[in-house]
Write a structure and sequence with these properties.
This protein is an alpha+beta fold and about 500 residues long. It is about 50% helix and about 10% strand. Strand 2 and strand 3 form a beta hairpin. It is globular.
Length: about 500
């Protein structure tokens, strides 16, 4: 028997010891892509002698995709850097044409021609290639995935010259994807248990808000009293772009646990809806649609606004199916609240340690008195409180749960309503729903007591209410005037924050 046919675990008995330890040369050359190889390949793709039909050929587009897909992540980063830096805008040509325009005294026709030349010169060379890749089968999906790699590279690299070229490449891809993924080119599709198996499985895999536990759980989420809708793009027919999970109820729920369990268990939110046949919906009692999870499945479509349009399309779909439906609301997580609160506590401790005194703007006087066991007027008390939050140990103590309820609810209202970034809500989920025209309506204590819920928001959730006759105006007020439409309940919680902050500043 030839040693080539022996299993690897026996090779040491036949081959010289040094050969077993060394990596074969042909494997080294396959696993390592040097900059020179990438440069030669791109030079062939962008060969100036091939300008015309050959440069735009389907064969070159396929070769480009195939070459890139075979690269390992580090090589893809290098590929994107070379592509962005060497095949972007002809800067010298832009300067020459601009100078000609400034020095030209030609008539309007001549100026228009020069402007057309300038526009062409300002278009990155790789943009035409991307447009042609978008025309081949699987090309749009390839560009979406490539932009996902590009976003990862941008977030992990520092600010440098290559980073600036990569940003231009990112803007170019993003503009193309915004055009290709306009709402008119997307198809709304409902996913049920009878949908193709691969689509149902992808719904499970992509779920990022409330992970699916098993197939039984997934079956409930696409079954009775549930609606799962996705946007599908014609160029990616078996790939959901955005997924929206909706629960059909007769009230606005305050806990996610009543939604993600089986309706047949008769949890409170569904108790009046359940019949003797759990799979048969009592249509005339359904009055509320609860959007409890929305997920963008493609990292490469970051910044392409699709969730907003999906919610609006789903509302129209549900109104057609249930004419009596009047209430549309979300039951949303509050990612970032706990991290924000821990940073605020740490900031107070650090300021005190630097000799600035102990700042008390985070807690009300009544709250400090109520939690006298923690002694929040001292650094040791604040450190103890911070540790309680970090370890989630408070959630196992009924006394602490009662003591912390008002304090954490008030601080969460402050986080959602008062804390801002550039005038808009600091919380990304709040920013999304408020931009869509929803109202910040109700905070829900112990709304999600899963490890994920405790880790994100100390177990709280929030309802953003969609009043259909006011969504357009609410959206304009938020986007243009940075005004958050809020319920009196949230305002009452947050107003004490404002008074406390003002008094501490005085």
């Amino acid at each position: 028997m030839s040693f080539l046919n022996l299993p690897f675990r026996y090779a040491w008995k036949v081959l010289p010891f040094r050969v077993v330890l060394q990596k074969p040369r042909f494997l080294c050359s396959m696993q390592t892509t040097k900059p020179g190889r990438i440069q030669l390949f791109l030079a062939e793709i962008f060969n100036p002698e091939d300008e015309g039909p050959l440069a735009n050929s389907e064969k070159k587009c396929k070769n480009f995709c195939l070459f890139y897909e075979k690269l390992i992540p580090q090589e893809k980063n290098l590929f994107l850097q070379i592509l962005s830096k060497s095949y972007g805008v002809h800067h010298s040509r832009v300067i020459r044409i601009s100078q000609n325009i400034l020095n030209s005294q030609e008539e309007e026709v001549g100026l228009l021609k020069a402007e057309e030349q300038l526009h062409h010169a300002l278009t990155p060379r790789y943009k035409m290639l991307f447009m042609n890749i978008g025309r081949i089968e699987g090309g749009v999906k390839f560009l979406v995935d490539m932009r996902g790699d590009l976003i990862h590279t941008l977030t992990t690299s520092g600010v440098n010259q290559d980073n600036l070229h990569l940003r231009v490449l990112n803007y170019t891809l993003k503009d193309l994807l915004i055009l290709w993924f306009s709402v008119g080119l997307l198809k709304l599709q409902r996913i049920t248990w009878q949908s193709p198996c691969d689509m149902v499985q992808k719904i499970s895999e992509y779920e990022a808000v409330h992970p699916v536990r098993n197939w039984t759980d997934l079956k409930h989420r696409v079954g009775s009293y549930r609606r799962c809708f996705v946007f599908i793009h014609n160029s990616m027919p078996r790939e959901p772009v955005v997924v929206l999970h909706t629960a059909l109820t007769n009230e606005i729920p305050s806990s996610i646990h009543s939604i993600i369990k089986s309706p047949s268990r008769k949890t409170s939110s569904f108790e009046t809806l359940i019949t003797d046949e759990p799979n048969v919906e009592t249509v005339n009692k359904i009055s509320t649609a609860v959007f409890y999870s929305i997920t963008s499945t493609q990292k490469g479509l970051q910044g392409v606004d699709l969730g907003n349009y999906l919610i609006k399309r789903v509302v129209r779909e549900l109104q057609a199916e249930f004419p009596q439906m009047r209430n549309f609301t979300s039951l949303s997580p509050i990612p970032g609240f706990k991290d924000w609160l821990l940073k605020e506590i740490s900031r107070i401790i650090q300021k005190h340690q630097s000799g600035e005194g102990l700042e008390m703007s985070l807690f009300l006087t009544t709250e400090v008195e109520q939690m006298e066991d923690l002694d929040l007027t001292t650094v040791s008390g604040l450190e103890k409180f911070r540790k309680l939050l970090q370890l989630n140990s408070w959630a196992q103590d009924e006394k602490l749960i009662r003591q912390l309820e008002k304090t954490l609810m008030r601080l969460c209202a402050r986080y959602l309503y008062i804390e801002k970034r550039r005038g808009y809500a600091l919380n990304p989920v709040a920013n999304f729903h408020l931009g869509n025209g929803a109202m910040l309506w109700r905070l829900n204590w112990l709304g999600d007591m899963s490890p994920r819920g405790l880790g994100q928001s100390c177990g709280m959730m929030v309802n953003y209410r969609y009043y259909l006759d006011a969504t357009e105006q609410n959206s304009l007020n938020y986007l243009e005037k940075k005004h958050i439409e809020t319920s009196p309940e949230i305002i009452a919680l947050a107003s004490s924050c404002k008074k406390e902050v003002q008094s501490s500043m005085e």
